Amino acid sequence: MIKGLLLDFYGTVVEDDDSTMLAIAERVAAGSPARPAGSVVMADWEREYEAVANGTPFRNLRDCAVQSLATVMTAYGCPGDPAEFGAGQFSGQVLPLRPGTREFLSGVTVPICVVSDADHAVLTAAIAHHGLSFDAVVCSERVGAYKPHAAMFRHGLAALGLEAGDVLHVGDSLRADVAGANAAGIRSVWVNRRGLPAADGASATYVIGDLSELAGHLR
Predict the structure, then answer these.
(1) Which of 71, 95, 100 is nearest to 14 (CA)?
(2) 136 Cβ neighbours under 8 A, 6+ residues apart
(3) Cα–Cα distance for residue pair 162/46, rounded to 1 Å
(4) What is the CA radius of gyration of the chain?
């Protein structure tokens, strides 16, 4: 019996900022003498971001994004201020709810803890903007670690007062959400929002397209 949920936020409850980040990467590509494809720059930025986020000391998401972007801009010979290039990612724009979110949240009866890598102020502002309410919110900035670190999942369980076997963790990242939850002994639900091959989610307990499909797994 499922007694509670740990719920990723960006890419799961609301849309992710993929298009904004790609636009930044394409601007870097346009400023590089090598003229790489924006998608290539984006992939390099994501890898560098992960390296910074996994390093020490802990840095909030915004600092990780700017520092990793600075490294990528230097590597591609793109002049400019990384903070200004990346400003669009932190413009204060609130991303829309994903399909199925409102429908699911209006009917769910088990307690929910949001477990998100987003910075605290950004996350709480987005939750308030959409008029959402959760039993608890855990963010990396307060924990001092990013998913898939076990500390994020431990804090989520503690916030709900539940054990690993009592909950599902739901998220769109195979690495941060599915692998992280699995390593913590928590059953995982992969939100396959990009329609990737089903085999990609083989390690997840369940695979869904959006939260409206989750209700059937809570019975």
Answers:
(1) 95
(2) 111, 112, 113, 114, 156, 159, 160
(3) 33
(4) 18
pLDDT tens-digit readout, 121-143: 999 999 999 999 999 999 999 99
Structure tokens at 48: 């560098």
CATH number of 18-90: 1.10.150
- Binned at pLDDT 50, 70 and 90, residue 198 comes out as confident
CATH superfamily, with its number, for domain 4-16+95-217: HAD superfamily/HAD-like (3.40.50.1000)
Does 200 have pLDDT greater than 90?
no
- Asked if the model's pLDDT at residue 15 lies above 90, the reply is yes
* Every domain range in the chain assigned CATH 1.10.150: 18-90
Structural contact between residues 156 and 136, judged by C-beta atoms closer than 8 angstroms: yes
Instruction: Indicate if the pLDDT at residue 196 is higher than 90.
Output: no
Structure tokens at 185: 């002994």
